[in-house]
Amino acid sequence: MMKALLLLLGTGILGGTSILLAKLAVSTGMTPLSYLFWQSLGAGLVLLVVSALRGDAPSFAPRYLRYYFVAGLVSLALPMGVGYFMVPHLGAALAGIFTAMPPLITYLLSMCIGLEQARLKRMLGLMAGFVGVLFLYLPQLTAPDSTLLVYLLVAAIIPVSLAIGNVYRTADWPAGANPVPLAAGMMLASAVYCLVFEQGRDHLMMPDLAQTGLWGIIAVQVAVAALMYMCHFELQRVAGPVYLSQIGYIMALTTLVGGVALFDEPLRPELLVTLACVVLGTFLVRPGGKKAALARADAD
Question: Does position 146 have pLDDT exceeding 70, yes or no?
Answer without folding.
Answer: no
